[in-house]
Amino acid sequence: MERVTTFLKRLGLALLSVALLGLYARFPALAFLPYVALVPWIVLYTDDRQPRVFAGYYVFAAWIAWAALYPSTGKYGWFVPFVMGLFMSVPWYPFASVLKRLHARTALPRALTVPLVWIGIEWLRVALTPGDFDLYLLGYSQAPFPLLVQIADVTGVYGVSFLLAAVNGWLADAYFAARDAGSVRAALSRRNVVSAASIAGGLAILVAYSAIRLPAVKESPGPRISIIQANTGHKPGAALVDHLEQVMQIEEWVPPGSADLIVLPENAVLDNVRREGLYLDDLAWLASRKKAPILLGAMTWPKDLPGKKRNAAVLVDDRGAILGEYHKQALFPFTEYVPLDAVFERWAPPVHRMLRRLIRIAWGAVPRAVPGNEVEIFPLRWSGGDARFAVLLCSENTAAPVPAEAARKGADFLVNITSEGDLGGPVQEQLLRICMIRAIENRLAYVRLGNTGISAFIDGAGRIRRILRGPKGGTILEAGSLTERVSISGSGPTAYASSRDAFAKGCILATVVLFAIPIARRRKGAAVAATVVLALVATTGCERFPAASDAAGAAASLERAKQAVQRRTPGKALPDLLAACADQESCRGAMPMFREAFLRSQRLEDAVDFFVVVAARFPDLAPEARAQRAFFLDLLGRPREAEEDYRASLAARPSAERFGALGALLLKDDDVDGAKEAYREAVSLAPADPELRAQLARTLRLTGRPAEAEEILQRVVAERPDAATAWGELGRIRLARGDEAGALEAFEQGRRADPSKLDLHFMVGRLALREGRLDDVRQTLAGMKRVHATLRDLRRE
After folding, report:
1. Rounded Cα gap, residues 556 and 580, in angstroms
2. How far apart are CA 140 and CA 21, in angstroms?
3. What is the pTM of this model?
4. pLDDT tens readout for residues 556-614
5. CB 209, CB 151: distance < 8 Å
6. Number of alpha carbons in the 13 Å side-chain half-sphere of residue 87
7. What stretch of H or E contains 458?
8. How far is Cα 573 from Cα 385, in angstroms, rounded to an integer?
9. Could you give the C-alpha distances from 478 to 239, 455, 481, in angstroms and in order?
10. Helices then strands, each counted (H, E), the chain
C-alpha cells in the first residue's frame, strides 16, 4: 500500500506542473502561472529525503504536457496531440535527470540551479524540436509587460525565462526549508533571503534597463503596408476559390495608391504560384491597379527536386515578375515534413507505414516540402526611398535565429505571414506574444498577418501599435484589412542578434562546468523510451499481402471483395483482394478494385510494394501492375520512378489511358513537349476521346501552336458539346487573342457541361472581376464554394 501511495504522490506532482502549464496555455491572461508552474517538478526531483525518483514520471509528464499545451491539434484526430508529443517532447526529457544530479552534486540553491538547467532545456527545445515549434518558453508569457522584457535585446527571451525559473527555484527552496524545519519561518532562512534578494535585484536591474531602453528606441515612419486578413479556407483543392476571394478583397479594400506594399497571408496560393495563366497574371493586374507590389505566401515547385514542394513567400510586381522569393526554413512537422521519416523507413518499416497512415487520416496527405537554406531580404521602393524587409512564414517566428539572421543582413522590418486556421484564440495570442519578443530581440518593427488573425503592427519595443479588427470587432476568424505605416529603427543588429544565443549557451556551459564529470549514463528513462519504441515496432504494421492457399480460395476471396465494393466499403475489401492474387485469373479480376481499396485504407506505400510482387509473380499482369504502381508513386511524390513504370507498362502493352496518365504526369512536371508526345500517342489509340484530344490541344497551345489547338478543339465541341475541358481550353485561346466575349461564352459553356470544374468557374469570376462586376464575382464565389464542398464530401465518402 505504501508503494501505491508513493507512486500516486509522485505521479500527482508530475502532473500538477502539467496542469499549471496547460492552464496558462488555455488562459494566457494568467501570466503569473509560469512563475510557479515548475515547482512541482522541482520538488519531485530535488527532494533530499527521496533522492532516487524514477525519471519516467517526468518523461510521461513532459509528453502529456505537450498534449496539454497544444490541445487544438486534436481537431485533426484525437490521437494527433499524443502522436506529435512523442516527437515534440523529446527535447524536454533531460531536465529532471540533469537537475536532480546537479542539485545532488553541488548543493547550490535551487534558485540558481533551476534557471541554469531550465534555460539550457529551453534552448534545446527550440533547437531540436521538429520545426523549432515551441510556443511556451516561460519568457513569452511576460510579453504584454514592456518593463519586464526589454532585456531580450541582449539575452533573447532566455533572459526573461531565467528570472521566472529562478522564482520557481526559490519557491521550492522555501518549501523544503519550511518542511525540513517544521516551521514556515524557516523559509526565511539566511540562504533563502540571499536568494530572494538576488532575484529582487535581478528584477530591479531588468526593470531599470527597460525604463532606460524604452525611450531610447528611436524609429522613423516607414512605408505604408496594407495587410489583408482574408479568413479564407486555405484547404487543399480550393486554391482557385481562395485566390479569387483574396483578389476581390484587395480590389474592394485597398484604394489605388494607398499603400506601398500589399500583403496576403501564408498559403494565399496553395498551389504552384507559377502555374500557367493564373496567379501571377492576377497579381500583376492588381499590382498595376493599386500601384504597389504584392507579397503573399504560395507554393513553388523546385525543378531540381521532382515531386517536392516549397512553402514560399513571393513578392510580385505589376509585370507579374517575382522580385524576391523566400523559402521557409523551419518546416512544420507532419504538415510539411515527416520527422525521422527516412530513419523509420530503413530501421522500422511497420512504424514508418503506421505513422504515414495516421498522417493521411489526420491531414489528408503525407507532406513533401523541402526547406530553404537562408533568409531572403526583399527590396521595397517607396516614396521615402528604399526599404529592406525579411519574411517569416507561419511558426518560423518561434525560431529566433531566423529573424536574428535577417537583422544581421540589414532588414529594416520583419513581416510574419501565417495561416493557422481555427487553432483558437489562446494559441494565436501566444503567437502574437512571440512576435512581440522577436521585435524586441532585434529592435525591428514586426508586421504579423494571419489568415484568420491575430494580425497587428508591432514596434521595435514590442508594443502593439495597431491591431486588425473585423466588422464585428473581433481579432480572429473575421475578414478585414488594415493599412498602417511600419516603423524603421535603423539602429543596426542588437547585441542579441549578434550573439547567436550566447546567454542561453552560457547557461549550458555553466551547467556543464558545475557537473565537472560526464553525465552520459544509462538511465531508466532511456530504457523505458527504448521499450516503448520496441513495443511500437512489435505491435504495429500491416498485412504483408496474404495469399489464399489455392485457386478456389482465391476466387472466393475475389467474390467477397466484390461484395464489399458493392456495399461501398472498398477499404474493407483489401485483405480479400490481396488474397485473390494467389491465382492469376482472380488477381486479374481484382486489379480494377485495388486502386480504390488502397486509397481508402490510406496504404499507399503498401500499394507500391504490392504491385512489384504482382508484376514478378504474374508476368502477364505486369503491364497493369506497373501502371498501378506508377499511379501510387506519383501520389507519393516520386515522379521519376512513376514515369519509368508508366513507360515500361506502355512498352509492354500500349494503352490510351496509360499514355494519358503519362501525359498528365509530364505536364505537371513542366515537360510540355514530352506531354504532347504522350497525348499524341493516346489520341492515336483513342481518336474519339474528347478529354485526350483537349489535353493534346492544351500542350499545343503551350508550345506556341494555338491555331492547331483551336482547330482540334472546335471539332471536339462540335462533336461533344458536353466536353468541358475542351471548352475551357478554347476559352483560354480566345482570351489570349483579346476576344473576352468569346472566351466568356466558352467558359460558360464548359461550366454548364460540367459544374464540378472549378477552373471554369474561376475564369468566369475572373473576367467579371476585371470588368468591375463584383456582385457577379460574389455569386461565382458562392457557387465555387458549394462545388468544392460537394467534391470534398464525395472524397470523404
Report:
1. 8
2. 13
3. 0.89
4. 988 998 888 888 777 788 898 899 998 999 999 999 999 988 988 888 999 999 999 99
5. yes
6. 19
7. strand 456-458
8. 66
9. 19, 11, 10
10. 33, 13
